[in-house]
Amino acid sequence: MTSRFRWDTAAAGAVALALIFWGHLGNSAALPAHLFLAAVGAPLVVIDLAEHRLPNWLTLPAYPVAGALLGLASIAEDDSAAAWRALAGMAILIAFYDLVVRINPAGMGYGDVKFAGVLGLYLGWAGWDALVVGTLAAFSTGALAGLVLL
What we know:
Blueprint: H1 7-25, H2 31-51, H3 56-76, H4 80-103, H5 110-126, H6 128-149
Helix pairs in contact: 1-2, 2-3, 3-4, 3-5, 4-5, 5-6
């Protein structure tokens, strides 16, 4: 990792995301899972902006941790359908992002594909509509950022 990475910026982002999740989820059993996503997501944003990569040391361990936390939330809420949707969301987003990278390799890298599965777990757990809207929001945000850069 280069010296451009700022842990203080990542920590501030994680705190901000955690507050957003807390405000929206309240006492939800999924709150620990969402706090974990905030803790992993914030440094990934900082690293991606600085280095244009998503390192394996952050993306790959997120799978078992997120899966376990969301699985426990599904058990606590007695909602096995959420767990199955999470797994399906993971598979769908990995396949979709892989297809996008194969069509346009210059548009994104395989780090994005690897982290898409983690996001698919969360979006699938939240519901099919969240999976679709979240995926569209990610691509819309990327397109908007591209337009701003032009």
